[in-house]
């Protein structure tokens, strides 16, 4: 039933002329999220080939819609003289506050000291995770945000450029992370965005690159999905975390969409990846965590229009 409904919604989304925020886009993605939200034990790897193809296309459509939503609000915020003073106009800012607090609580348990340098790969035009962590939790840490899209970085940089504190601690790099090697050793914690690597194979390539170049003992934070929610985001397979010790895996069972995986780069050399040695998986307890749901646009379109009209007046 869930799979049939997801396929039906996919057919409607695929016919849209644009995925920019609008009434139709908001309605369809809200339906998709609500359909995938129940904790139904679906193993997406065992679905038939046509449905797996639809899932792959849906994840990419979700990624495109999320990027357009963030660009829209980043541009809107950038029209203010002090963008960060108005960041609450983003409809899901409170979700980011909750998610960032919880992720901070999780990774700080595994740090021997407050990290001085953090990287976020796939930061996008609205780097709220970095902004919230830098503003509320890691107030002396520098954040290096990597994105392959120069226009996204330009929007993001504009948001913090007028802030006397964050403008000195947040840096933006326009590059393919696969072209970055030595610099990755400088970070104690690296976040990998959920939509960096939209398939299992693509994700594994990025993870292997990080395993090769991250500093021994550094933490890797990943966001993924589980069950029916895997129609929205890629699944993080612990077996793909070669070169890392998996510390915790969190699969939410409520309205939260994203799963969270925390892993540590092996502090000592490990057998070659060619020998098919997987990660060490420590016992972990599944925990409910509040995560940002970038696709749940319900009842937000009128608020968006009101804000835009206010800016134009």
TrEMBL record:
It holds the Pfam family NAS. InterPro entries: Nicotian_synth, SAM-dependent_MTases_sf. The keyword Repeat does not apply. It catalyses: 3 S-adenosyl-L-methionine = nicotianamine + 3 S-methyl-5'-thioadenosine + 3 H(+). Keywords: S-adenosyl-L-methionine, Transferase. It is an enzyme of class 2 (transferase). One of its GO terms (molecular function) is nicotianamine synthase activity. The keyword Nucleotide-binding does not apply. Its EC number is 2.5.1.43. PROSITE patterns: NAS. GO terms for biological process: nicotianamine biosynthetic process. Synthesizes nicotianamine, a polyamine which serves as a sensor for the physiological iron status within the plant, and/or might be involved in the transport of iron. Belongs to the nicotianamine synthase (NAS)-like family. This is Nicotianamine synthase. It comes from Protea cynaroides.
